[in-house]
Amino acid sequence: MVESTPGAWRAADEYLADTLVGSDVHLERALSAQRSAGMPEIEVSPVAGKLLNLLVRISGARRVLEIGTLGGYSTIWMARAVGEGGRVVTIEAEAAHAAIARESIDAAGVGDRVDIRVGRGEDVLPTLVGGFDLVFIDADKESNTLYLDWAAKLGHPGTVIVLDNVGRDGEIVNDATSDTKVRGTREGLRMLGEDSRFDATALQTVGVKGWDGVAIAVLV
Ligand code: DHB
Ligand code: MG
Fold first, then answer.
1. I want to staple 73 with a disulfide (CB 3.0 to 4.6 A). Which of 43, 150, 168, 204 is the partner?
2. What is the total count of domains within the chain?
C-alpha cells in the first residue's frame, strides 16, 4: 500500500489531472505569466479548476462572480464554462496582478466575457449589480464573512457559492489559533453553517496544494 504522504498525494493528484483534465496552452501560459511576475503560486489546482468549470456548467450559471483573480487561472476555467454571452466579473485588489490576469485572459480568447474590477472587495462589491448565479470566493481569508454576506446579497435562491481553502492543513479545528487566515476560514465556515441564507457542505482535499478543502453552498 502507498504511504499517505504529501508526495503521494501530489503524485495521485497529478495522475488524476493527467487522466481527466489534460493540459492546455492558455492555462499553462497564464501560470507561467503569473510565475514570471513573481506572484504567489496559490492558484487552484488543475482538478479544482476543472471542478469550477463543471460546477458552472452543471448549475447553468451565466453570470459568475469571482473574488480574488490572482493571475486569472480560475477565471479562465470559469469564463470557458459560462459560454458565449456569459459573463465573469472578477475582483482583484492588486493592480499589478490584474494587469497580468488581463493579458492571460485575453490571450485565452475569453477576454470579452471577463470584467476585471481592480480594488479591495469591500470597496468593489457595493458597486456591483446583483444577479450572480455562482460566486467563487478565493481572496483574503480574513474577509470571508464579508464576502459571503455580499455573495448572498448579489445572488438569488439557487446561486452556488464556492469558498476556497477551508482545510488549511487541518488547522481549522484549532479554535485557539492566532493565525488570522485560519480564524477567517473558521468564521466563514461558521457562517455557512449557522446563517439560514446558506445550505453548505465542505470536502477536504489533498494533492498538489497539500491538505486543504473547499466548501460548496447554495443560497436558500
Ligand atoms: C492561500 C490562499 C489561497 O487562496 C490558497 O488557495 C492557498 C493559500 C494563502 O493565503 O495562504
Ligand atoms: Mg485559494
1. 43
2. 1
